Amino acid sequence: MDLCCRKAPDPLSLVGEEKLLREFHQEQMSEYPPSILENQRVAESLFGRLLEDFPRGIAVEVVGQDTFRGMYLSWKHHVRGDFAILVDDHTFGRGTSYETLKTTVEEGLRSKGLV
Fold this sequence. Notes:
Blueprint: H1 11-30, H2 34-53, H3 68-77, E1 85-87, E2 90-92, H4 98-111
Antiparallel strand pairs: 1-2
């Protein structure tokens, strides 16, 4: 079979695949404990706001605590069980206000001459 002559997929079939993927994702997410889902929601909200406020100044990196890097960072910054946001060796936990986090990011960017 000549690969260059394949027929393009029907857009309607792609919509069906997207729906199946979305349903699969929802099914998978429903199996997580509520505390983990809440952590994810809060983290996504904070990261989203940071990316809106600093579109070119920061790089957000999500690291799972079950990876070697995540275990190392958890140990180094004394993070226990909950998510944390790390900005230049400053650790922010779940209850941190967005304004405190934003101010620290601004100071970090300013100290590096990026603002």
